[in-house]
Amino acid sequence: MNTLLEINNLSKTFQLHHIGKHIRAASHVDIRLNEGEFVGITGKSGSGKSTILKCIYGTYRIEEGDIIYHSKKFGPLNLATASDRQMIYLRKHEIGYVSQFLNVMPRTSARQLVKQAIVEMGEDAMFAEQETENILVHFELDRELWDSYPTTFSGGEKLRLNIARAMVKKPRLLLLDEPTASLDHDSKLKVKQLIEQLMKEGTTMLGIFHDLEFMHHLCDREYNMQNGEFTKSTSFTNS
Fold this sequence. Notes:
Elements: E1 3-16, E2 21-34, E3 38-42, H1 49-57, E4 64-71, E5 75-78, H2 84-93, E6 95-98, H3 110-119, H4 125-138, H5 155-167, E7 173-177, H6 185-200, E8 204-209, E9 221-226, E10 229-235
Parallel strand pairs: 3-8, 3-9, 6-7, 7-8
Antiparallel strand pairs: 1-2, 1-4, 4-5, 9-10
């Protein structure tokens, strides 16, 4: 298998200036992710899971280590030192991120948000419109909400829209930050179905969860994290 992402000795510290304290969020983290794999990271809240995803996505800059991503456009690229221009391109075309929270432009409807994500990939407006409708139907988002502003949505509706917007782009690498948080069982199954579909199409995924019970039959490996460090890793035979 070809390696898509390799993290070596990643460390991230936050400095709380008002109390003069340093918080070590991640310490000497190593991960290798092969093309087509789905790797899960588990651990309690505050253990440092989200920090890893945000370092990959470029939201956080790291003090130590390397994050080597094998980009289709740029080739092997260290995301720890990538330029803003390179990161913007990767976010539009290669790396997707699903967060528990939906941050959107004001006065932009749910339909427009998803459609814009597809158009960014270079698709025409007619294709983007059809794909937008398909995925909004898949996630059973009420048609009356399609042309409404997401600021009026419930927490579960916002999360479903966020997942739809990221998954519809079919990125090479998809980062999942608690993708099933606050969803009911039926909505979780919808997420699982799309993950299975993306895996068949070759998308590589790294996801964080409080527990992997729901995803056990999908994940290739699990890393457990405590206090910013991996304590154990488990490989599954279902891949």
